[in-house]
Amino acid sequence: MLLIGSLASPYVRKVRIVLAEKKLDYRFQEDNPWAADTQLPQTNPLGKVPALVLDGKEVLYDSRVIVEYLDTLSPVGRLIPAGGRERAHVKTWEALADGVLDAGVAMRLEQTWAGRSDAQRCQAWVDRSLDKVQRGLDAMQAQAPGAQPFLTGQHLSLADIAVVTAVDWLAFRFPQQDWLQGRPALAALRERLAPRASFADTAPRL
């Protein structure tokens, strides 16, 4: 398998963590979708990362599709329950974390994208996106259980991976803001997973 993506992308990192946890072999090809010389549209017509190339031809894209596929490849460390309410619970956590990321990315692009001048930037849009991020983090804190080590029980799941990936990216891109102030459950989860090899080896970087 060939994974195409950016080392700074939280969506790519989520896939890389799953690959590590599932002990799956793959090659990594770095590509910045915002660069003028990006080759990504030749693989993913949407021009987004991550993209996972299977057997040199078939391509999967969207991190949610990719991680769900990867979880079926090995019985080692199942990260998504097979069905029922437990599966829906984990996927809802992932949707919430990805929604926080989507809003965070929108906020960052509005503030920094070189394709817009300062006069074209919209503070109201930044504020709206920030509000979504804060509400999402508040919901995570409120829903996080206090009496178990992980979000959905005694074992690591995709819920934990998605949430910590989102929190780490916010800290990476907006270090001036303390995203975990008043959110002790999220802080504890992040601290618990930080030393784990799959998380430590994939920390976001430029």
* Global Rg: 17 Å
- Which strands sit side by side, in order, in the main sheet? 2-1-3-4
Low-pLDDT runs of 5+ residues are none
Tally the structural domains.
2
- Global morphology: globular
Number of strands: 4
Q: What integer is the average pLDDT? A: 96
Number of helices: 7
Q: Indicate the CATH topology of the largest domain.
A: Glutathione S-transferase Yfyf (Class Pi), Chain A, domain 2
- Strand proportion: 5-15%
Helix content range of the residues, please? Answer: 40-55%
Q: H/E element string?
A: EHEEEHHHHHH
Quote the distance from N terminus to C terminus: 23 Å
CATH architecture of the largest domain: Up-down Bundle
CATH class category of the largest domain = Mainly Alpha
For the biggest sheet, the summary is: 4 strands, mixed
Structural class: alpha+beta
Short structural summary:
49% of the residues lie in helices and 8% in strands. The chain has 7 helices and 4 strands, in the order E-H-E-E-E-H-H-H-H-H-H. The mean pLDDT is 96.
